[in-house]
Amino acid sequence: MASGGSQLWVAAPIERLPVEIFDQIIPLLAVDTPTNGYTPRNKDLASCLLVSRTFYNMTLSTLYARVTFPHSTIFSKFLAHINKYPELGELVRRLDFSQFTSIGLGRTRKMQLEILNLTATTLLNCLNLTPRVREFLAAESMDMDIDAKVLEKIFFDLPRLEAVDFCGSTTPSFMKDITNVLSSNNPRMPDVLKLKRVGFHGCATIPPSVYASLLPRLAHITHLDLTHTQVTDGTLHALPKTARLLHLSLSKCNKLHGPAVVDFICNHPAVKNLVCLNLHYDISRYRLLSTADVDELLPCLPNTLRALNLSGAKINSSHIPQLRRLSAFLEDLSIGHADLSLAEINCLFDRGDEEEQRENGPHQSNLRYLDLNGISSVTPLSIILAGNNESLLRRETFPLQVLELSEKVTDGLKERSVSGNRLGWTVRTDNRRGWYVRTGPGIAPGGESLSMAIKEDDGSRPWKMGGKWWGSRKIGMAEAELAGIYGYYAFGK
C-alpha cells in the first residue's frame, strides 16, 4: 500500500521473468493440429490471456503467430476479429489451410459457397490485413478461392513471405489464374522472388510454362516440392546457381528424363548440400532412373543427405557398395522395387569383413527407416524366418526402427503377429501404406539398453521440419507436423 492510500501493483515472481524466457515457454502451449475441425483449439493459450496483463501481452503474439483454419467458420471469425482490431493482423506469421475442408457441420460445398465465409474476396482481405505473414499454406479444398488478385498479392505484395504451398490445387480456374500471374509476360513479375520454400505437390494441371517462368527467379530457394508436376528438364537446369536447395522432390514428374535429372543433381551448384531428395516413381506408369542412371547418381550424392527416396529406380546388386556408403549417414532410405535378395539388403547393416574393418573400421548403418515395398525377395516368411545373420529384425540392425512393406506383406505379418511380437516388431498401417515398426527389444534377454534407446528416440529431427514419422513423400514448407491433406499426401498416398 502506498503512503497516500493508493495500491501498488506488484508483479508476481513469474511475471518478472525476461521476455526471452516467456518467448521460449509460451509457444510450447500452442497446438497446431486440433483433434478435429470443430473442437476448441489452444485452450491453454486462451487461459493465459486471463491470468494477468503481463501474461496477456506475452501470449497474444503466440496466439496469432500461426493461425490454422480447419473450416470456413473459423476463418470468418478470424477475419472479423482482425478487421475490428487490425493491430492483431500485424502479429500473424502463418496462414495455414492444410486442414481446411469446405464440407462440415452438415453442409454441402454448394451451401458453403452461398455462405461466403471463404471466397477470393475475403481471402484477399485477410492477406491485406496480415502484411507480415511469412508462410501461406493452401490446399486443394480451397483452390477455387485463389484467384489472380490473391495470387498477385501472394507473389508480389507480401515482402516478408518466405513459404508458399499449393498442395493438390488442380481446378481449371486456379490453373488459368496462376498461368497468367506467373507468366514471363506479366509486367509485375520481378527478376528475383524472395521465396525460400515453394510447394506445388500434386499440382498436375499447371502447364510447364509456369515453372519455366518461376524457377529461374527462385534465387533463394531451399525447399522445392514439384511432385507430380509438368516441370521439364530445361526448366530444372534454369534454377539459379545462387540457390541452395536442401529439400527437393521430383517424384512422378513424367516430363523429366533420367540422364537430365542425374546431370542436374551431380553438377548443378544449387544441390551440392541436399538433405532430402525424393525421386520416387510408380514403375507401373513411368520409370525415371535406369541402371546406368543409378550407376552415375549414387557416387554423386553428398554426405549431407539424411533422406533419399529411389523407389522405382532400376537398382540391383551392383549398387550395394554405394548404398552401404550412403547408409552410414542416411536415416531414411527408400529402394522399393529394387532387384535385390534379402542377403544383399542385409549387406547395408553388415560390419564388413576383417580386411574392410582393418582398413576403414567397422561399418555402422545409420538407417532408421528402410522402404522395401515391391521387392520380390521380401515376404512375410523371409522376414520372420530368416536366419540370425540375415534377419532385418535382429538387434544388430538397430538403429533401424521402421520397414515399409507392401500391403500383401504386412497382411501376412499380421497373421504372424505372435512371431513378430517376440522379436519386438508390430504392423502399422495408414490408408494404402504399411510399416513394420520396432517397438521393443523382443523377449530375448539383455535388451534393456535397446529398449531405452527406442523410447528416447521419438523420431524428431531438425530436417523433418517439425515432423516425427518416417518415409514422408511430401516436403514440408513450414515448421509443423504434416497434418490434414498434407499428412495424406505425405504418408497415406
Q: Which ranges are low-confidence, i.e. pLDDT below 50, for 5 or more consecutive residues?
A: 35-39
Our count of helices gives 21
Shape: globular
Number of strand segments = 14
Radius of gyration: 25 Å
Strand content: 5-15%
Strand order of the largest sheet: 1-2-3-4-5-6-7-8-9-10-11-12-14-13
Helix content: 25-40%
Mean pLDDT across residues: 89
**What separation lies between the terminal Cα atoms?**
66 Å
Biggest sheet layout: 14 strands, mixed
Concise structural overview:
This protein is α/β, with parallel strands linked by helices and 493 residues long.
Describe the structure.
The protein is globular. It has 21 helices and 14 strands. Helix 4 (72-84) packs across helix 7. 34% of the residues lie in helices and 10% in strands. With 493 residues, it is an alpha/beta fold. The chain starts with 18 loop residues before the first helix and ends with a helix. The model is unreliable at 35-39 (pLDDT under 50). Strand 6, helix 11 (233-237) and strand 7 form a beta-alpha-beta unit. It has a 14-stranded mixed sheet with strand order 1-2-3-4-5-6-7-8-9-10-11-12-14-13.
Core attributes:
493 residues, alpha/beta, 14 strands, 34% helix
Write the layout of secondary structure elements.
Layout: H1 19-25, H2 43-48, H3 53-65, E1 66-68, H4 72-84, H5 86-89, E2 94-96, H6 109-115, H7 120-129, E3 135-137, H8 148-156, E4 163-165, H9 172-181, E5 197-199, H10 208-214, E6 223-225, H11 233-237, E7 247-249, H12 258-267, E8 276-278, H13 291-297, E9 307-309, H14 320-327, E10 332-334, H15 342-346, H16 354-360, E11 369-371, H17 380-384, E12 402-405, H18 407-415, H19 417-423, E13 425-430, E14 433-438, H20 448-456, H21 484-492
Helix pairs in contact: 4-7, 7-8, 12-13
